[in-house]
Design a protein that fits this description.
Helix content: 40-55%
Shape: globular
Order of helices and strands: EHHHHEHHHHHEEHHEEEE
Distance between the termini: 51 Å
Number of helices: 11
Largest sheet: 3 strands, mixed
């Protein structure tokens, strides 16, 4: 079953549980079995509270400024912005949640298999390195980084491309919100019906529902309801770190206001449920 309309998608996100991960004691299977993302009921409530508590201590203003200054430091003529976009979220968030050993290559290995749970020895090895204390707090920290890895990189790349292509001077927050609606990095997610059947929620289609977003194919940061997008979810499993992803992406946009595009057409890396540009070459305006 697939849901494409906005109202049905929002209701499904709010009312239907996520497909649960089976119990496990090691590796990727342990992580998925121990985080809020794949939990329901009291387990989800407790684990989500752990994540929210950890993330609530992060100063979003400082995070945005760190993203801005780090991007500027790494910019060079003809830079591929995605080399920054793929590493920056992990680096900044790992420092903020006190998991400094979580390097981008380790988190990339985990993120690759995190949503599907497909067996992956590299993911298992990365988790073994990071989970020296295999408890719910450690799982929450690793889970935050795994979930942010691809989605935030996609948000950075898509928002940067749309801002520079359209030569926009709107506030970064407005550009990011409309990017999440118009070209969301997370394209779909899954829930379960009461009978155990899988529902695929087409977030990209729901975010372009013309009954909710008039002229939905037009990219308009001034759109009054741009923040009504569903790319961070809705209901009990709404992303608890959405403000952090937005802060990091805003910092990158702040840093590239004086840049122009070299890349004119984006190519996206697999999987199709994520929209992450493979490359985005930019250069200073002349």
């Amino acid at each position: 079953m697939q849901v494409t309309g906005y109202n049905a998608a929002q209701a499904t996100l709010a009312d239907c549980p996520v497909p649960p991960a089976p119990a496990a004691t090691t590796g990727l299977a342990w992580l998925r079995a121990t985080v809020a993302r794949f939990s329901t009921g009291p387990d989800h409530t407790r684990r989500r509270a752990i994540t929210v508590t950890q993330l609530s201590t992060i100063d979003t203003g400082a995070l945005r400024e760190s993203a801005r200054t780090t991007t500027i430091e790494r910019l060079a003529p003809h830079l591929d912005l995605m080399t920054v976009g793929r590493a920056l979220p992990t680096e900044l968030l790992a420092a903020a949640i006190d998991l400094p050993a979580a390097t981008p290559p380790l988190i990339a290995a985990i993120a690759r298999a995190y949503l599907t749970g497909a067996p992956d020895p590299a993911a298992d090895a990365a988790i073994e390195l990071l989970a020296d204390t295999p408890d719910e707090t450690t799982a929450a920290r690793i889970g935050v980084l795994a979930q942010a890895f691809g989605a935030t990189a996609g948000l950075i790349g898509n928002a940067a491309f749309l801002m520079l292509r359209n030569q926009l001077d709107d506030p970064a927050e407005a550009i990011i919100a409309e990017t999440l609606r118009h070209t969301p990095p997370v394209r779909a997610t899954k829930r379960l019906t009461p009978t155990g059947d899988t529902i695929e929620i087409d977030l990209a289609a729901a975010n372009r529902d013309p009954d909710v977003f008039p002229d939905p194919d037009r990219f308009d940061p001034a759109r009054p309801n741009r923040d009504a997008h569903l790319d961070f979810g809705s209901g009990p499993h709404q992303c608890p770190g959405h403000h952090l992803a937005t802060a990091i992406a805003a910092g990158v946009l702040d840093a590239i206001r004086n840049q122009q595009l070299i890349t004119q057409t984006l190519i996206y890396a697999p999987p199709t449920t994520l929209r992450i540009p493979t490359h985005l070459h930019i250069t200073p305006k002349t």
